[in-house]
Amino acid sequence: MKKPxxxxxxxxxxxxxxxxxxxxxxxxxxxENARKVMAAFAWNKGFKEYFAVKATPNPRLLEILLEEGCxxxxxxxxxxxxxxxxxxxxxxxxFSSNVTPAEDFRLARxxxxxxxLDDFTHIDFLEQVADIPxxxxxxxxxxxxxxxxNNIMDNPGDAKYGFTKEQMVAGFKKLQAKGVKHFGxxxxxxxxxxxxxxxxxxxxxxxxxxxxxxxxxxxxxxxINLSGGVGIPYRPEQEANxxxxxxxxxxxxxxxxxxxxxxxxxxxxxxMGRFMLAPYGALIATxxxxxxxxxxxxxxxxxxANLMRPAMYGSYHHITVMGKEEAPHDCIYxxxxxxxxxxxxxxxxxxxxxxxxxxxxxxxxxGAHGFAMGYNYNGKLRSAELLLKSDGxxxxxxxxxxxxxxxATLDCTKYFD
Length: 417
Ligand SMILES: *Cc1c(COP(=O)(O)O)cnc(C)c1O
Hints:
One of its GO terms (molecular function) is diaminopimelate decarboxylase activity. By secondary structure, the chain is α/β, with parallel strands linked by helices.
């Protein structure tokens, strides 16, 4: 059973003040989970979780993660500006971009953040548009399939990211010749993994690769970045990852591979987004229409422009109709938004209790890659974001867009005089 982090009475109070749709985040859940992550990797002196800003780019939430000891992983110019504004400094920021524009690299160098290069050709590009720093990381793509035992988890050979194995060796030598003193490696090989094995298997691969790089180049990396990909159970029947088991699995690989070759000072980094925030954010919407044609439809005041994962990937997001948790789930509905797009459905053929107009919907696990992927199609406006604070108070951490925001990039003056 997935349980909302608010009850109906609490939510009704919030809705009396803030109109739906809106995103609601749970500060206490965020903090408790972040502390578990720190505890799981406490065995590693240099451990740092660089929260993937793209997952939930809200400064108030970034501030909470900063307070919990996280860094920030940025992938663009504006994400760098945001992380800098919140107070992440220099090596608290990882810049893991790809197809990087010159001005992004210039800003990354100006802020003196740790750059994680996506490609061999970016070495010369970075030197031309800015300069080569003392510390650098390179993103590794081993190609082929990424497997855990006999399960193919993902297909790195088909992914646009990273250096090949040969390029990693050549890149390290080239960077060393250009004066780099401190090296790291990074790899992201599978997304939304719901198994405690992903990080340990990835870690072992990277640890062995670090040993190989040392043999080939004489360079001992100082940090290894396991990146993102640790998933969450979107479906109620899935079993959640246990971060303590994951941390222990990485430790075991560390002890077996790195410690025997004298690399026990290597720092472990992560760049989790989904695992840090997805369960601690929900999209709250109101049922505003019901429709009885060839199927039964419930229409919400939110749409795919607020949460596009179901429309884009066919993703499952669990839904609680507030106050009807215990009622029989004996109605089958498509739950839709109002875009002129038939894929604008939060759920298809979902068994729910009988819905009445005005019912509040709690769409679970939307705290990462939710609001952030929003868009303005059909002139739909982005919603507000609210924070349910640890003390029970609610703080608006982003106001809803207005028509003025939607028109802000146009010069409409000639239509108005
Ligand atoms: C998206 C991304 C992440 C975060 O991924 P999650 O699946 O949200 O953990 C981390 N690092 C990089 C480079 C990414 O692109």
